[in-house]
Design brief:
This protein is α/β, with parallel strands linked by helices. It has helices spanning 66-72, 75-78, 80-85, 105-108, 111-127, 141-152, 202-208, 240-251; strands at residues 5-8, 20-26, 32-38, 47-52, 88-93, 133-138, 158-162, 187-192, 214-217, 259-260.
Length: 261
């Protein structure tokens, strides 16, 4: 098991990181923003993906005990090494220090969060000069990826939304009413056909397929969690490798599967 190395970005020289490091960035007036960097071998990265978990987006990176949760939970978090194996450096973004209970959708949609994301992107561009940077979200993490990319504009090279929260519920706004045309960079939707979470219907992704590319995933392993949680079709359970492969190939402008079954 790799030992996580916690480094203050202001003191860390720009260069090839070790396989898996925690980076802590100062952002807004005493606020810090952490991310976990999982990188390919030195010189092997071809793109960078900023990964946003679902739920409240609280990964607790600064706690050593978070490691078991990282490897068994959220789709994008548990597959970060698959991205690295495909030549994509993955940066798993935690909730910032001023959101100790995690991020509500209103915060994810706001300017402060976009500013924090911008600091992460700037840091990654220093570490991986010349490589394209993508925002990738899953479930409620799609709120961060979509809104952040709309606010950050041309600094982002592409966006991937997986298990997109198209509908609102009593607690969360999601991306209901969001104008996807406000995202200026290329946009890919990835959705499981059998996703039975009430706020992430595949039918909504299908309706957008006339305007944006869509990867539709079917099958996998029997669910081990509730429908809106990670170990189900909502989290591409049992289809992780094929789904990450399609995302990585789209990022690298290679032919990719639009139907995974």
């Amino acid at each position: 098991m790799h030992r996580l190395l916690v480094t203050l970005a202001l003191l860390l020289p720009v260069g090839a990181p070790s396989a898996e490091d925690i980076v802590i960035l100062p952002t807004r007036g005493g606020v810090t923003q952490s991310y976990l960097l999982s990188a390919p071998e030195a010189g092997k990265a071809r793109a960078v993906a900023v990964l946003f978990a679902g739920g409240a987006g609280k990964v607790d990176l600064e706690r050593e005990t978070a490691r078991t949760v990282l490897d068994r939970g959220n789709f994008l978090v548990r597959t970060r090494r698959l991205f690295a194996g495909s030549g994509i450096a993955g940066a798993v973004v935690d909730a910032p220090s001023d959101q100790p209970a995690g991020m509500e959708d209103e915060f994810r949609l706001g300017a402060a969060h976009a500013g924090d994301i911008g600091k992460v992107v700037t840091d990654l561009k220093k570490r991986f000069p010349g490589l394209p940077v993508f925002l990738v979200g899953t479930s409620r993490g799609t709120v961060s990826a979509a809104s952040g990319s709309a606010r950050l504009g041309s600094t982002i090279d592409g966006v991937v939304l997986t298990a997109t929260v198209f509908e609102a519920n009593r607690r969360h706004r999601g991306l209901s009413g969001f104008d996807f045309s406000s995202i200026p960079s290329p946009l890919l939707f990835v959705h499981h056909v059998e996703d039975s979470c009430e706020v992430t219907p595949h039918s909504a992704a299908k309706r957008l397929a006339a305007r944006y590319p869509l990867v539709s995933v079917s099958g996998g392993l029997p669910a081990r969690s509730q429908p809106c949680e990670a170990l189900s079709a909502h989290g591409f359970y049992g289809r992780e490798a094929e789904t990450v492969d399609a995302i990585a190939k789209w990022m690298l402008k290679q032919p990719y599967r639009k139907e995974i079954n």
